[in-house]
Amino acid sequence: MDTRPGEDAVPLRRAKGRPAPVGLPWPQVTQEQWNDYRWQLSHRITSVEDLRGLCGFTPEETRLLSRVTDLYRAGITPYYLSLVRFDDPDDPIARQAVPSAEEYFGVEGGEDDPLEEEKDMPVPGLTHRYPDRCLMVVTNFCSMYCRHCTRKRIWALGEAAKTEFELTKMFAYIRRHEEIRDVIVSGGDPMTLPTERIEYILKNLRKIPHVEIIRIGTRVPSVLPMRVDDELCAVLEKYGPVWINTQFNHPREVTAEARRACDRLLRA
Ligand code: SF4
Predict the structure, then answer these.
(1) Which residue among 98, 142, 222 is best mutated to probe the pocket of ligand 1, counting the most ligand atoms within 8 A of its Cβ?
(2) For the residues 16-34, what does the mean pLDDT come to?
(3) Class of domain 117-267
(4) From CA 94, how far away is CA 89, in angstroms rounded?
């Protein structure tokens, strides 16, 4: 694909319309590429080295933060990175996305599983704590790895989705437990799965008569809003209603793209 800047080159911008600082790594991205979630996924920032120039890390900070990402991987979509104000050391967008030394020094005092989800896990990946609801972790992959995530422990397992075999065991458990009427499909971020796999999950859940409510936990609307495309909305509509649990943690995340994604989800 031709990536020379043209009339459709993306005017990468910061809040208030100021231009992005020179140095964002995709000066020649076209509008078409920018709005393609596959392009966003394949151009994620995944290392401290990639962030060094943008964030102004010293060599010492780079070494320490590389140790952080050895423990807890990094992943930031170009879209979300374009919202960061690099001249603010406490930028609330960066705090959610950019690894920090506190993560390294907090390891000793923190809990791997702060919500104790694994204690109530009768089948790998499925937490059943409250009688009428359960949680399915269907992938370990996220388009962005939020530094505040309570499931960081699963990042070490690799960026893999659950296999059909593993999902089948979860469906079988839910089928056997007629008290379950509410299923939260989570991860990782389920909305990063191929649409066919999302359909496979929803179709199988809809086959279970006692499952009344299906929820999907996702940060896609705030970190990868272009993922909410026609194909995905058609699947959500087909198996709906599907409730979306998401996080917006700062007003600057409420961009035109994010509004459009939420609007489409509401209509699906
Ligand atoms: S998208 Fe959700 S699961 Fe993924 S890192 Fe962020 S909070 Fe954690």
Answers:
(1) 142
(2) 67
(3) alpha beta
(4) 8
Tell me the CA–centroid distance for residue 146 and ligand 1, in Å.
Answer: 5
The strand pair at 242-245 and 213-217 is best described as parallel
Residue 221 in contact with ligand 1 by CB distance below 6 A: no
Residue nearest to atom 1 of ligand 1 (CA): 219
Q: Which pLDDT score is estimated for 104?
A: 82
10 Å Cβ neighbour count for 150?
A: 12
Is 78 touching ligand 1 by the criterion CB < 6 Å? no
Q: What is residue 217's three-state secondary structure?
A: strand
pLDDT digits (tens, 9 = 90+) for 74-114: 999 999 999 999 888 899 999 999 999 888 877 777 888 89
- Structural domain boundaries in the chain: 15-105, 117-267
pLDDT band (50, 70, 90) for residue 23: low
Residue nearest to atom 7 of ligand 1 (CA): 149
6 alpha carbon to ligand 1 midpoint, in Å? 35
Instruction: Pick the atom of ligand 1 nearest to 145's CA.
Output: 5
Q: How far apart, in Å, are the Cα atoms of 47 and each of 84, 149, 151?
A: 16, 18, 20
Ligand 1 atom with the shortest distance to the CA of 151: 8
Position 10 confidence tier, pLDDT thresholds 50, 70, 90: low
Confidence of residue 119 (pLDDT cuts 50, 70, 90): very high
187: nearest Cα among 197, 196, 177, 178: 197
Instruction: Supply φ then ψ for residue 49, to 5 degrees.
Output: -55, -45
ipTM: 0.99
